[in-house]
Amino acid sequence: MAAGAAVRAWMLVLCLWGAVTGDQNITARIGKPLVLNCKGAPKKPPQQLEWKLNTGRTEAWKVLSPQGDPWDSVARVLPNGSLLLPAVGIQDEGTFRCRATSRSGKETKSNYRVRVYQIPGKPEIVDPASELMAGVPNKVGTCVSEGGYPAGTLSWHLDGKTLTPDGKGVSVKEETKRHPETGLFTLHSELMVTPTRGGALHPTFSCSFTPGLPRRRALHTAPIQLRVWSEHRGGEGPSVGEHMSEYTVPLEEVQLVVEPEGGAVALGGTVTLTCEAPAQPPPQIHWIKDGRPLPLPPGPVLLLPEVGPEDQGTYSCVATHPSHGPQESGAVSISLIGSVEGPGLETLALSLGILGGLGTVALLIGVIMWHRRRQRRGQERKVPENQEEEEEERAELNQPEEPEAAESSTGGP
Known about the structure:
Oligomer: single chain
Radius of gyration: 49 Å
Helix content: 10-25%
Number of helices: 3
Shape: flat
Number of strands: 28
Structural class: alpha+beta
CATH architecture of the domain at 124-229: Sandwich
CATH topology of the domain at 124-229: Immunoglobulin-like
């Protein structure tokens, strides 16, 4: 029992010692004063202590002591040994250490990890939409937060629930900028949504900013409520006259023109799609590929430069007009002509090469066969000639010697 109590007592002492001498995380608001205590330092001078700083203002560890002069009005050691930073800045983020020796000779170390923050003002939605069209991408607005540090995050909400970008019905385009002098961040978040037909007629959107430091509740914008148009239904929603000018031209049939004609283009070429939807006021034009809306700003012309395999597909355009709702054009197909002809030419060249090689081999074989036949004919001609010569030689050898004997007999006495 006594041994166990002793062990627990030592563990308590070690925990307390770690709490005193271990690193402490300090958060300070930008522009406010910050005081860091040097534990173990005598309350009255003279004191034996030393502060060491490793921050954004120092290339390496910088040393401050009570006997030293204030460091460019950035920090100074107080009479009780504490370190004072009159106005904390972003460059003061870093590590602070103090080593103090008491009059009894005991040495104590204090370590601090300092981070700074700045809470921006409430975010706001700029350039909000006045209404939305079902079935096509719509820009709801841009949420802006200025003057925060660290950057933090922006989130969009629909009817109080967080919207998650999925690349289809909901997409968010974010941008983060940092001021070159103050170092504070400005965030932009643009929301695009594609309302479903038959969905809510009056959705409510809002945006919130969540600080990166310190932990605190999010800041919310004022909500905006928009009207969703699907098609003109008598008696529902605003009247036509509220959205159309005095000089109104109804929306005619939507035509989609493609250049080059037919939509077939070589690899790396350019395709221009033009959506012709004459009406007054001009309708909004959105683009659809393979049945899915393209996350592009509205416009009557879609340019596809340097066409590649990923650009192939079926395209159409949707024109939305307050008096008629959305009208979709006929679809056109974009295809590559270079991807099919290329391998065909290579196959033709290979076939011609093979045929040429076979022809050469056949020619060589024919020459060899002709040469051999000629040699055989020569040999056949030489055999009869040799036989005739041998027969003549044999005939001469076998002739009788009677004439010579007769001459010898007549020439006697």
